C-alpha cells in the first residue's frame, strides 16, 4: 500500500468506524455466532498476491462484525466498562505510525518523557500521595494490564525481601544461595478472597504460594485489618513468610473497598510485606474530589495501579502503575547486556522503562492518554465518571423499588449494583410476590443478607441463584442487553 492508497483506505476506514459508532445503540450487543463460525468463511491460507483495500474492507462487515460483542454499546453492562474514545483512537493511530519499541530513553525520548509527564499529571489528578510522583523516589509507568502490573510488583516484592534477608552474605557464596532458595520456598502472597484472580496468577508466575484472606458478606466483602493480621500470623505460625499483599479498591464482584486505613495502620508492623493497591476499575473515580479521602493511606503502601482503559475513555491497553520506590522495581527487573547500554542510561539522568516492566519493547501508550486528557479536560473526565455514578444510583433506586421481584445485594458502589431475582416458593407458585419491603423481616431473607448457616438458608440461596441465572440468560439471549452473572 503506497501513500495515496493509504490515504483512500484510511479515509474509508475512518468513515466506516464513525458509522459503526453512530449505529451502535441500535445493534444487538451480543454476537450470535456459533463456535468455529469463522474458519469455513475464510480461505485455507493467505492470498498468494496482495489484495486491494477495496477487497479487504467489505470483509469487516461481512465476516468480522457478526462475531463482535459490542463493548462500546450503551447496552453493554457486563463485566466492567472498557471505554474508548475518538481522541484515544487517534493516539493509537499515531502510535502505530511511529512504531518504536522504545525500551530505553534513547530509543525515542518523547515516548519516555511524555509517559513520565502524563503519569505525574494523573497521579496529581487522582490525589495520590506525592511519594508516587517522579520528582521523588517514586513514579509511574504504563503497563498493558492490571495483571501485568501485579506480576511486576510481586517480583519486585520477592526480590526486596530476599535482598534484605541475605544482606551481608558473601556474593556468590553457597550460604547466600541456600538462604535465598530456602526463603523463596516459604514466601506467600496474600489477597482477600475477593481480590481479582490476577494476584493468584501472579503468585503462580512468581513461583510463590498464595493464601486468601476471608472477606465475608458480614464484612461487606471487604478485607478488614483484623482478618489480615490473623492471616499473616497464621502464615507465620506455619513457617511461611508473607511478602506481598493485594489490597483492592473496588473488587471485581461487588466493588468493595478493603479497609485501606486499617491496613495502613498495620503496615508498620510488617515492613517486609509489599502492599499493592489494585484499583483497576474504581481508581478512575478518584478524579472526583469526593472520593479522594480514600487516598491518604496509600502513602503507607508500596504501589498502586488503575486502568485508564476501563473507565477513563482510553482504549485498551493503558494500565497506570505507580511505585513509591522505583529502585525496587528496577533492582528486580533490570538486566543490562552490552547491547542495551548507552551513555544516557549510564549517566543515570534518564528513565529506561524496560526496567519497570516484563517485556523489553513497549508501545507509545502515553500519546493516547495525553490526547484524552487534553480533549476532555479534567472537568470533562469528571463529568464522565460522575454521570456513570449517577446512572448507577438511578439503576439502584429502580431495582430497590421492585423489591417484590428483585433484591439488592450490594451497591450502588462506583456504578455497580449487585442484585438477585427473588426465588419462587418451592413446591409451586411464585414466592408470595417474593421478598417485598415488608418481607424484610423474613428470616430467610435476613439470613441471605448476612450469612448462610442453615440448610434452609442454603436452599434459599440455591433457589435465588437458579432463578437469577434463568432471568439473566433470557436477558442476554435476547441480545439487546448484556449483563454479567456471578452464578
Ligand atoms: N483487578 C480488578 C479489581 C479487576 O476488576 C480486573 C478486571 O476486571 C483486573 C484486576 C484485571 O485487569 P486487567 O485485564 O487489566 O489485567
TrEMBL record:
Positions carrying N6-(pyridoxal phosphate)lysine: 310
Recorded GO MF terms: carboxy-lyase activity; pyridoxal phosphate binding
The UniProt record lists the keyword rRNA-binding: no
GO cellular component, one term: cytoplasm
Keywords from the named record: Decarboxylase, Lyase, Pyridoxal phosphate
GO biological process: amino acid metabolic process; carboxylic acid metabolic process
Domain of life: Eukaryota
Cofactors required: pyridoxal 5'-phosphate
Family from the record: Belongs to the group II decarboxylase family.
Protein name: Aromatic-L-amino-acid decarboxylase
Amino acid at each position: 500500500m503506497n501513500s495515496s492508497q493509504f490515504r483512500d483506505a484510511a479515509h474509508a476506514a475512518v468513515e466506516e468506524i464513525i458509522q459503526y459508532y453512530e449505529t451502535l445503540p441500535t445493534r444487538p450487543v451480543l454476537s450470535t455466532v456459533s463456535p468455529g463460525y469463522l474458519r469455513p468463511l475464510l480461505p485455507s491460507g493467505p492470498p498468494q498476491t496482495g489484495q486491494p483495500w477495496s477487497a479487504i474492507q467489505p470483509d469487516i462487515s461481512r465476516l468480522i462484525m457478526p462475531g463482535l460483542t459490542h463493548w462500546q454499546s450503551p447496552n453493554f453492562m457486563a463485566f466492567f466498562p472498557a471505554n474508548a474514545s475518538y481522541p484515544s483512537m487517534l493516539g493509537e493511530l499515531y502510535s502505530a505510525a511511529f512504531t518504536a519499541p522504545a525500551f530505553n530513553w534513547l530509543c525515542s525520548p518523547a515516548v519516555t518523557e511524555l509517559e513520565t509527564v502524563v503519569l505525574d499529571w494523573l497521579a496529581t489528578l487522582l490525589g495520590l500521595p506525592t511519594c508516587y510522583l517522579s520528582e521523588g523516589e517514586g513514579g509511574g509507568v504504563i503497563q498493558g494490564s492490571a495483571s501485568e502490573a501485579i506480576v511486576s510488583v510481586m517480583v519486585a516484592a520477592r526480590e526486596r525481601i530476599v535482598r534484605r534477608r541475605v544482606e551481608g552474605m558473601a556474593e556468590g557464596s553457597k550460604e547466600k544461595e541456600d538462604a535465598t532458595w530456602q526463603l523463596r520456598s516459604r514466601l506467600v502472597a496474600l489477597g482477600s478472597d475477593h481480590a481479582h484472580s490476577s494476584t493468584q496468577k501472579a503468585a503462580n508466575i512468581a513461583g510463590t504460594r498464595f493464601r486468601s484472606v476471608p472477606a465475608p458478606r458480614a464484612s461487606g466483602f471487604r478485607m478488614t485489618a483484623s482478618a489480615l493480621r490473623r492471616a499473616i500470623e497464621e502464615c507465620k505460625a506455619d513457617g511461611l513468610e508473607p511478602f506481598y499483599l493485594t489490597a483492592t479498591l473496588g473488587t471485581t464482584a461487588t466493588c468493595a473497598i478493603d479497609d485501606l486505613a486499617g491496613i495502613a495502620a498495620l503496615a508498620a508492623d510488617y515492613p517486609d510485606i509489599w502492599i499493592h493497591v489494585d484499583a483497576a476499575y474504581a481508581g478512575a473515580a478518584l478524579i472526583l474530589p469526593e472520593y479522594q479521602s480514600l487516598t491518604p493511606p496509600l502513602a503507607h503502601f508500596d504501589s498502586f495501579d488503575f486502568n485508564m482503559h476501563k473507565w477513563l475513555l482510553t482504549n485498551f491497553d493503558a494500565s497506570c502503575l505507580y511505585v513509591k520506590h522505583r529502585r525496587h522495581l528496577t533492582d528486580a527487573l533490570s538486566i543490562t547486556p552490552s547491547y542495551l547500554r548507552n551513555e544516557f542510561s549510564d549517566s543515570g539522568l534518564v528513565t529506561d522503562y524496560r526496567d519497570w516492566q516484563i517485556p523489553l519493547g513497549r508501545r507509545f501508550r502515553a500519546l493516547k492518554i495525553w490526547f484524552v486528557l487534553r480533549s476532555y479536560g479534567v472537568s470533562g473526565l469528571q463529568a464522565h465518571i460522575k454521570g456513570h455514578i449517577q446512572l448507577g444510583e438511578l439503576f439502584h433506586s429502580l431495582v430497590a423499588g421492585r423489591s417484590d421481584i428483585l433484591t439488592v445485594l450490594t451497591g450502588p458502589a462506583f456504578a455497580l449494583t449487585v442484585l438477585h431475582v427473588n426465588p419462587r416458593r418451592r413446591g409451586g407458585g411464585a414466592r408470595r410476590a417474593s421478598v417485598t419491603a415488608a418481607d424484610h423481616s423474613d428470616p430467610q431473607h435476613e439470613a441471605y443478607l448476612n450469612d448462610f448457616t442453615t440448610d434452609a438458608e442454603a436452599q434459599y440461596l440455591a433457589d435465588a441463584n437458579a432463578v437469577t441465572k434463568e432471568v439473566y440468560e433470557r436477558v442476554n439471549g435476547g441480545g439487546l442487553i448484556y449483563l454479567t452473572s456471578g452464578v
